[in-house]
Amino acid sequence: MQADKTKNKNIFLRILPLHGWIAVIIMVAVHVMVFNGSRIFTRMLEHHNFTTAFDYRIPFVKEFVIIYIPIAYFQWVYGFYIAAREKKTICARIFAAEIIAKLLCLACFVIIPTTMRRATVHGSDFLSDAVMMVYRLDTADNLFPSVHCLESYILMRTVLWLEKAPKWYKWITVPISILVMLSTVFMKQHVILDVIAAIVVVETGIFVAKLIYRKKQS
Q1: Which of 5, 59, 87, 150 holds its CA 20 to 30 A away from the CA of 117?
Q2: Which regions of the chain does DSSP assign to beta strands (E)?
Q3: pLDDT tens-place string over residues 119-155
Q4: At 188, phi and psi to the nearest 5?
């Protein structure tokens, strides 16, 4: 009986270690604050359109919605789950970089509110309906940097840090991340500058996280 009680108590720790749970909870809280809280300050501000001539030449490809929704979300959930299961030092560096990058997004969202024109979707097939659903649920703001690109790019950049990840995951992370970033522009959810900005904030987050943990170890 006592063994069963202990087993039940540790069910959450069998999913993730304690430091992994803490990292995930903080990451989700910061994400909600950044993506939704920023709108409190930007709702009445002028929004800028960073669409370039090159963006106008990129075709709208509704098939990329398959990458944009299910594949991207699977990558993020599984990728951060794998990162949260790593030993404390690796987990802390990855999630610190993610949170720093997300806070930089908050600064960009508030200082430079952005918007863009979405594609005109023709047809009533499943893919067209899925794109329209995305457009309805994800309003055309908080675009610079692209959070979609941020999440996939940071998982791609830190995949080599992982010690417990299966080999197949390391192999597919790069192509999936590239496809997710491409999906944002082919879905007309983001423009090229949003993608570039996402890469910059992730690289900055990784750099700062490395500095922090280097000082802690010295």
Answers
A1: 150
A2: 48-49, 114-115
A3: 999 888 999 999 999 999 988 999 999 999 999 999 9
A4: 60, 40
Cβ-contact 136, 118 below 8 angstroms: no
Question: For 175, how many CA atoms within 13 A lie in the half-sphere containing its CB?
Answer: 4
Phi/psi region, residue 142 (left: phi>0; alpha: psi -120 to 50; beta: rest), is left
Position 7 scores a pLDDT of 53
Angle between helices 147-158 and 72-84 (to 10 degrees): 50
pTM of the predicted model, to two decimals?
0.92
What is the H or E stretch that residue 41 is in? helix 38-42
H helix intervals, 112-191: 126-137, 147-158, 167-186
Average pLDDT, integer, range 76-90: 96
Residue 156, pLDDT above cutoff 60: yes
DSSP letter assigned to residue 29? H
Q: Looking up tokens 């791609």, which residue turns up?
A: 156
Tokens of 70: 């299910």
Contact between 128 and 122 (Cβ < 8 Å): yes
